[in-house]
Specification:
It is built from 2 helices and 6 strands; from the N terminus they run βββαβββα. The protein is of the alpha+beta class and about 100 residues long. It has a single domain, classed as Folate-binding fold (2-Layer Sandwich). It has a 4-stranded antiparallel sheet. A two-stranded antiparallel ribbon has the order 1-2. The model has no long low-confidence stretch (mean pLDDT about 90).
């Protein structure tokens, strides 16, 4: 599998470590009323979809960046690659706009 790194271009997937579902970027608020339940779900409940899925990948053997890779889990086709930092900033901006 080739991952088209947004900064470094095409890289072999062996340079990366797969870290799971990209929703881990959206950490619950530890001060909310339902923080205990929210953190339980955050830590232990994961989707395992067949098809398009957003995942966290870490460029361990490269620039040590975190990426959000949108991949088809059935075909392994990579549909999109974004820097996790940019995804997190966009999510934070969206939350504050609400």
């Amino acid at each position: 599998m080739i991952i088209n790194h947004p900064l470094l271009g095409p890289r072999d997937a062996q340079e990366f470590t797969y870290l799971g579902d990209a929703t881990l970027i959206n950490r619950p608020d530890w001060q909310s009323e339902n923080a205990l339940n929210a953190f339980h779900d955050y830590l232990y409940l994961r989707d395992n979809p067949a098809g398009e899925h957003r995942e966290l990948w870490y460029h361990e053997q490269g620039d040590r960046s975190w990426l959000v890779v949108t991949r088809n889990t059935m075909t392994h086709e990579i549909l999109n690659v974004e820097l996790a930092h940019d995804v997190a900033k966009a999510a934070a901006a969206e939350r504050s706009a609400q």
